[in-house]
Automatic annotation (TrEMBL):
One GO MF term: 3-oxoacyl-[acyl-carrier-protein] reductase (NADPH) activity
Organism listed in the record: Corynebacterium glyciniphilum AJ 3170
InterPro entries, sorted: NAD(P)-bd_dom_sf, Sc_DH/Rdtase_CS, SDR, SDR_fam
Keyword annotations from UniProtKB, A to Z: Cell wall, NADP, Oxidoreductase, Secreted
Protein name: 3-oxoacyl-[acyl-carrier-protein] reductase MabA
GO biological process, one term: monocarboxylic acid metabolic process
């Protein structure tokens, strides 16, 4: 048990197995820790195994790390097969892994376009297909796909916005397909969250983003994690196919 479960005795995810991608740091780490604090065993899936192991150790609940590149369909298939053998059931999938390669349209290279689409859109599709198929057999599942406020369109992010818009449409489609199997699927759209992804911005752009947030601060990974923990729980059993902003009022 994690310290939080011990302290509060609130464990709505006890007995659940969760897979969180890109969870070695940033928002994914916050989600992994939160799900564990609510009682789940968490598989921390990331390209960076040593950092993922540190997150899994912090989670407790017999959580563990796996090295996984979500953009590699064969690796996803093999890894999910191994996880099903090991865990027996996967109840919660959080597709969080993502990258950005921002550039204005006239400067964006094929490589920048392809890299972002491969991880941010195809990666979520591969994970949904493999784990969604497993969940169908179990007759239970909670899928949370991390999109972004940028899906509405953003300067310098044609690749990222297109991928995240694809995640929204993917999620709405699988929500309809999987509903009859007692599986929910929702997309969340973080606004401006304080992680390495945003800390790499020039200061004047960082400050300009803060000006767009009515609540007056950048979000923290835990802010996003609180929403994911709700969507992953049985309290959200009647919520599916939704696209939910989490940004302190942030609008592009
Ligand atoms: P982050 O700090 O850059 O963390 C992303 C994590 O994903 C890293 O651990 C990274 O590993 C991992 N990753 C990258 N490519 C991967 C792959 N192919 N397979 C598996 N893992 C991979 O990003 P973040 O800010 O926490 O963002 C998390 C998610 O939220 C992303 O989907 C992002 O698009 C979305 N989001 C973020 C914000 C924001 O303001 N931060 C806003 C809206 C949406 P490495 O250590 O190797 O890089």
């Amino acid at each position: 048990m994690t310290a939080s479960v011990e302290a509060h005795g609130y464990a709505p995810l006890a007995g659940k197995n969760a897979v969180v991608t890109g969870a070695s740091r940033g928002i994914g780490e916050g989600i992994a820790r939160k799900l564990a604090s609510r009682g789940a065993k968490v598989v921390v899936a990331d390209v960076n195994l040593s950092a993922a192991t540190a997150t899994a150790d912090a989670c407790g609940n017999d959580s563990f790390a796996v090295e996984l590149n979500v953009a590699d369909p064969d690796a996803v298939r093999d890894s999910v097969s191994d996880l099903v053998d090991k865990l027996g059931h996967i109840d919660i999938l959080v597709n969080n892994a993502g990258i950005n390669r921002d550039a204005m349209l006239h400067k964006m290279t094929d490589e920048e376009w392809d890299a972002v689409l491969a991880v941010d859109l195809s990666g979520e599709f591969y994970m949904c297909r493999e784990i969604g198929t497993h969940m169908r057999g179990n007759g239970y599942g909670r899928i949370v796909n991390v999109a972004s406020a940028s899906w509405m369109g953003n300067i310098g992010q044609t690749n990222y916005a297109a991928a995240k818009g694809g995640v929204v449409s993917l999620t709405r489609s699988i929500a309809k397909e999987l509903a009859r199997k007692n599986i929910t699927a929702n997309a969340i759209c973080p606004g401006f969250i304080d992680t390495e992804m945003t800390r790499g911005m020039p200061q004047h752009l960082f400050d300009a983003q803060l000006d767009k947030i009515p609540l007056g601060r950048a979000g923290q990974p835990e802010d996003v994690a609180n929403l994911v923990a709700f969507l992953a729980s049985d309290d959200a059993a009647y919520v599916t196919g939704e696209v939910i902003n989490i940004g302190g009022g942030y609008k592009l």
